[in-house]
Amino acid sequence: MSGPDTGRTTARMMRISILTLFLEAALALVLGMLLGDTRQPEPGEERVSALTLMVLPFTPLLALLPAAAVSAVVVLPTVLLGEHLARRAGGRALWWQLLLSTAVGVVLLPTAAGWVGWVVGAVCVATAVVLAARARRGHFVRLLLWGTLTILTTSLLTLLLPT
User: Fold this and answer.
1) What is the 8-class DSSP label of residue 36?
2) DSSP assignment letter at 72
3) What residue spans define the domains of the chain?
4) pLDDT of residue 72
5) E strand residue ranges, 20-151
6) Nearest alpha-carbon partner for 101 in 135, 131, 60
7) Longest CA–CA separation in the chain, Å
8) SS3 call for 21
9) What count of other Cβ atoms lies within 10 Å of the Cβ of residue 70?
10) Helices (DSSP H) in the chain: which residue ranges?
11) What is the pLDDT of residue 123?
12) Orientation angle between helical segments 10-35 and 139-160, nearest 10 degrees
């Protein structure tokens, strides 16, 4: 009997991809909250309502289904197809995966967001693809720790920098 499986599995790739998309969404939320609304509130206007504070803990549950869907429909097929194309056509799997994730961004993202939205979406998908392709045992915890540290550092720096 061999030792524990430390290689890449579909479940590990799904967990890494979902966590990556969660961390990207959290970083976007932090930057949007800290840098988006910098004006002073009007008298009688609340910056944060009680309903917002009540719903805030449940937002990760609401984001789980879309993150799992994007991971299953976009990220995993992109990883596997990129590896297949690298075997058949040659080249490195990473370059095929980045090309495919960019193509997915072109096809799936709405044009209403403009080219900036397309670039942001393509980078988010490409990051999830690259990290999911390298998913091994123990990567989830490292990604969770480093991603949380990145979000906390970004929050601290945006609070400390003068606006």
Assistant:
1) S
2) I
3) 10-30+66-160
4) 93
5) none
6) 131
7) 70
8) helix
9) 19
10) 10-35, 50-55, 59-70, 76-89, 93-108, 114-133, 139-160
11) 85
12) 10
| 8 A C-beta contact, residue 151 and residue 30 | yes
Alpha-carbon span 74 to 69, nearest angstrom: 8
Q: How far apart are CA 26 and CA 150, in angstroms?
A: 10
Phi and psi at 152, nearest 5°, equal -65, -40
Question: Residue 18 corresponds to which amino acid?
Answer: I
Under 8 Å CB-to-CB from 63, ≥6 apart: which residues? Answer: 22, 25
The structure's pTM equals: 0.80
What Å distances lie between residue 106 and 71, 110, 116, 133, 148, CA to CA? 17, 8, 12, 21, 29
Stretch 22-47: mean pLDDT: 73
In angstroms, the Cα distances linking 24 to 17, 37, 43, 107, 133 are 11, 20, 34, 21, 17
C-alpha distances out from residue 110 to 11, 23, 24, 97, Å: 29, 22, 19, 21
| Closest CA relative to residue 79, chosen from 32, 137, 10, 31 | 10
Q: What's the Cα-to-Cα distance from 14 to each of 9, 24, 64, 82, rounded to whole Å?
A: 9, 15, 12, 16
